[in-house]
Amino acid sequence: MIDRAYRAYCYWKSHGTSALRQAVYRKLANKLQASSSSSGDGDSQKSVQQLYRKRFESLAPLLTYSIPASGVRRVSIVTDSVSSGSLFGGVGTALIFSALLANELDAQLRIITRTQRAQPQNIDHILSLYGIKLKHEVQFKFAAFFDQKYELDVKEGDLFVTTSWWTTAATLPGVPRKSIIYLLQEDERMFYAFGDERVKCEDTLRSSDIRFLINTKLLFDHLTSDGLGNIAAKGTWFEPAFPTTIFHPRQKQPSQKKRFFFYARPNNGRNLFYLGIEVIERAIAEKVLDPSKWEICLVGKDIPAIVFDGGYEPQKFENLTWSQYAELAGTIDVGLSLMSTPHPSYPPLDLAASGAVVVTNRFGNKTDLSGYSLNLICADLERDALVEALRSAVTLAANQQLREQNFRNNGLAGDWQQAFGKIIKQLSEEL
């Protein structure tokens, strides 16, 4: 009760009596509307607003209130979840960036999740793995999009790192736009058919008064050449880092089978799961991958039970921690990882950084990834072309001298401090 009264006092001090009165009215109206909806018939008519809310629940604005500024600034990362299954790739990158920015600003890191309560041990695991020690204790806040009871305090000087177009859209109404850094790691329009979601996504991508931080120059060039001039004006790009303490080849027994890795995410359409298993099936049939010599590993999420040509059952790896994933990557000889978007995606780079030879696909301006590693082979998005690329990859992987030479000459960055250094320094001077 005292906490609510203090929040009301802070809101009144910042916004005045009239704004406080309106806020109270809105809360009462929302409660009455919720009560009315729950007692009504399931087939009753719904207002446009009700239909909209139901369709776009994840866009529910953050429920914020203002508090007086204090001595310690905050960097808040707004994301869906930081569960162990969510931390690979993009979310992990957002966490690393936000932690380094918070340290540079002598600020506190706050994790705001929208779909699941944060698991602090997961944050500790990632930061300790990358050798990042925060200057201040981490804060956690569960701001579920389906909950209208939580409240999120905001003060002058707060910064918000958003991790998707929907978390950006939810953050925009409740905080100053100049405080938002949208960490964009894919052309998110490509997640959708040409419908309402795509239109709303593009509208967010065209925001002209927030900052954009783009994962890879490839993606930056794609976005800026596709009409998003605001990103050219208000954005910058970085190349991801793969520290050798985490990503490196692991020692294997001479008698051990060679290992093949397929990035298997059937519920993420852009990863082309079904094309991938078709390619593997053909590669087995043509003896490109001989199961007597190769262990086939499907790595991802929601992988169905599957049997390949000749009755071969692959190994499935799901729900790995980051360190377990890195350990596995270091044992791989050849990988297949598809991404039907302009971004190279993380698994091909993770594997190349770990000593593997990897086949991935071309898409738009993503035609050649040899600048990252000569052990990365790009092919057209067509079954036979990918099988032939796998044939080349198997041959290269067997040539230990050339494979190791390519690995030693990798162009992948190895230090996140270096990858984000200039960007964070510039931001610390501007913000």
Automatic annotation (TrEMBL):
InterPro entries: WsaF_C (IPR055050), WsaF_N (IPR048510). It comes from Paraburkholderia franconis. This is Uncharacterized protein. Residues 258-391 form the WsaF C-terminal domain. Residues 74-209 form the WsaF N-terminal domain. The lineage of its organism: Bacteria, Pseudomonadati, Pseudomonadota, Betaproteobacteria, Burkholderiales. It comes from the Bacteria. One of its GO terms (molecular function) is polysaccharide binding. Pfam families: WsaF_C, WsaF_N.
